[in-house]
């Protein structure tokens, strides 16, 4: 697989993370500018943001949980030339689950579909790691 094909889903996932960062920053700045949130109330990372700002902040923070295992897998698989078609296809599926998860998180925040999207991502990522580990350990 070409480097571009392997890295494109990574870049898309990173794009999602930056989009959430900019959305969170914009919303937080607005709440501070309007006086809805006081600087002293959040200066030590106290959870005193309004609900919507907290929702976006939590979704952004979530991008540094499960996706880290995705980034590590690609960072290892790419240089040792084990990022094959299966890894690339599953990378796309994983990224789609992350978008679904984030979409629910920042809109309805309905925990049931959000959890289903998250768990689908977990299963995909676990399958990717299992496949990768077996290829390495069995020298396939």
TrEMBL record:
It is found in: Membrane. The keyword Transmembrane applies. Pfam families: MAPEG. The chain crosses the membrane at residues 6-27, 115-138. Keywords: Membrane, Transmembrane, Transmembrane helix. InterPro entries: MAPEG-like_dom_sf, Membr-assoc_MAPEG. The keyword Nuclease does not apply. This is MAPEG family protein.
